[in-house]
Batch of 2 targets.
Target 1
Amino acid sequence: MQPAQFTAEPPSTDRTPRTYDVIIAGCGPTGAMLAAELRLHDVRVLVLEKETEPASAVRIVGLHIRSLELMAMRGLLDRILPHGRQRPAGAYFAAIPKPAPQGLDSRYAYLLGIPQPVIERLLEEHAIELGARVRRGCAVAGLEQDDEGVTVTLADGEQLRSRYLVGCDGGRSTVRKLLGVGFPGEPARTESLMGEMEVGVPQEEIAVTVAAVRETQQRFWLRPAGIGVYSVLVPAAGVSDRVEPPTLEDFKHQLRAIAGTDFGVHSPRWLSCFGDATRLAERYRVDRVLLAGDAAHIHPPIGGQGLNLGVQDAFNLGWKLAARIRGWAPDALLDTYQAERRPVAEEVLDNTRAQTELLSTEPGAQAVRRLLTELMDFDEVNLHLLEKITAIGIRYDFGAGPDLLGRRLPDMDVKQGHLYGLLHRGRGLLLDRAERLTVGGWSDRVDYLADPTAAVDVPGVLLRPDGHVAWIGQDQRDLDDHLSRWFGKPAH
Ligand SMILES: Cc1cc2nc3c(=O)[nH]c(=O)nc-3n(C[C@H](O)[C@H](O)[C@H](O)COP(=O)(O)OP(=O)(O)OC[C@H]3O[C@@H](n4cnc5c(N)ncnc54)[C@H](O)[C@@H]3O)c2cc1C
């Protein structure tokens, strides 16, 4: 798709704030992904990012199967793959070292380890290429909404106007606080220090000590992370909920306390600290203001799900908000964002709570860990846990129907190449194996593919722009009802 140019931005005067369709607070992975999704539908998007420069902490994050599938659906995967390292699927749940189970139904059945700043940069570049505007050094400090839109006030007093505002501004979200949306849950019980640095002792000495400590302490590692550099994770001395990064001295102190030696660590590349607080926003939407990503949910990083969850929120919200702006969204469509995504976050919070318990050094928790490790020898158990972490087991509640309804459709070969290759433009897709159906008056929003050879066991499938199955069947009238439900009134 050719990115549409920005044409409708009115000249700004002191009295008239600039107007956009959507303002996004925060250009982390969630904000950047959402901006790109909106631009696929020509929505005028401004992203406001409080930091003047992109983040520099080169923390490696894992992109799980569903996120890799989303990247494939938008033609982004080939751009991302060269920057990451593919690792086998499996061994994610509580870091229990089990190989991937049999029967993983995905073409993208691996984990991609990639530095967070790199994935953020790639997503931001993608959004900008599609026509999104990103302004750095602009912190959202105030908001006021009325029937027509939202007035956003920046920290320096500048005012901007948009029809919708989305807070993708992280766990300490200003937007969420300004809305007065509650963020209940559990405060942090533990904090961990994480960073990259050089060490002053030989590798063999490190390996022996690390292996001994890890027999009882799961929240600890010291492992090579590039030439001469080690990645270090160690429990912090207590819970401080600090905003400032820790010092090298903090690391040395804690390494001595846990391992009996500080390994002569020096020359840090970056140092950070994170807690295990678990919280979920009470609401994802207050009229014209919405929340996504860490602004809506936080949890410990065990299992590596936070960024994935945020990017998937953005994928769910983007086309719905665009439909609202383009004027064809059925009334309830935007509300399905919270109805679908909040339960998914609830599940992730729960599985991280469970994983956190499994990392405890208490004898009872260690015994449960040993038991679960045994149970994971059963492929079904292993698969169930992996589908949770990788988000390929999600089934949205679209009402009664076959098991596939509400689930994602895996990528597959089709006449024109592969299925996900047909979803790059962020439109719906009708896959018609019986070659008897039509998208009729919805053809401006929904593509049509007749392919009797497609490897799916049903005559017709309607996919939403996020790749979830919105309808299964062969009756045109029933299909039309469902096209109306998801894509509004037909254009003709
Ligand atoms: C140690 C660790 C390891 C992790 N590993 C993984 C992993 O392997 N896989 C995974 O999926 N997740 C992982 N995560 C979680 C992941 O980093 C977060 O979930 C993810 O960054 C959330 O993205 P986001 O865009 O929602 O929020 P953020 O990344 O927090 O981005 C929010 C953005 O908003 C900006 N902002 C804040 N306030 C304002 C304001 N008032 N106005 C404008 N801009 C504002 C911020 O500067 C920031 O750029 C890990 C986290 C930690 C701590």
Target 2
Amino acid sequence: MVALAACQSNESNTAAKATHAKAAAASAELTRKANMAAAAKVKANELGNIPVIMYHRVTDKPGGTDDRTPAQFRAELERLASENYVPITAAEYVSGKIDIPAGTHPVVLTFDDSSPSQLTLDAMGTPQPNTAVGILLDVSKKHPGFRPVATFFVIRDMFGKFTPEERAQVLGWLRDNGFDIGNHTRDHLNLLGKSEKEVTEQIAAGQKLISDLDKKVQVHTLALPYGNQPRDKQWALHGSANGVRYDYQGVFLAGYTPAPSPFTKEFNPVGIPRIRSMDKKGDCVKFCSTAWLDELNAHPDERYTSDGNPTTVAFPKFKTPFVAKNVTTNALPY
Ligand SMILES: [Zn+2]
């Protein structure tokens, strides 16, 4: 009797399990269908291109072809906000953590060379209004969906600060306020044609510069000075020198196109293109920010559009051959 009861209960357990599994599968299928419908509704394309914009100084007296005035910088951010772009950091981009509302497009705002025009804080820790960060915070206040995040690729000229205390204050402020810090090497040397030792020493020194000032800062990315790749491109991604090891998830160049989605086969962490912020003039008629934002507007089918669900990678079924191999369980072709 005991044996029979046990057997019966096992049987009913198995049956219950099967029913449960069936119900779970049906519910997963329903969720999947709902996700597909939601993605199709906003024409989600998470295999599309993402503009990674490169800024240098934001100053009233532009010194070269890399600088923008505060008015120009503000106008570009206003344009991005009005065209449904939402900033994400370089770290979020390379790791595919793109959590923005349905129908919006990611943009990565990057700042090179850690100049005081990007961030200067007063004695109470408030950003000066005409610095890049001051302007970004102001635009974000006017457009609440426009996340005030950006990535700062820093070098030894640490926002014009010289004492370790003041330098730590600026890095700590960036970290506390959700900004991302990347390495741009310590001395901003051209790494083209340099030996492995010279390349890894420069990058490790940049990493040490940051972690010595603020141990809590996690560095996930590097921007190459002048966008020049070392002889072996992998040296920029992984290496160690003088007891400092670095392992990055992405290395950024200096030009000239929007970057591929991190979910496509085209994504290559050793050389991620960026776009210089500039109007359509001279060599910027086609390859800088105004021209590329016009181009992405003219070809929305090539631009990254989010489905609003960070757990799926949604795209029109037609684009399936371009999905990266590591996107498997969460792919949502529709
Ligand atoms: Zn630079």
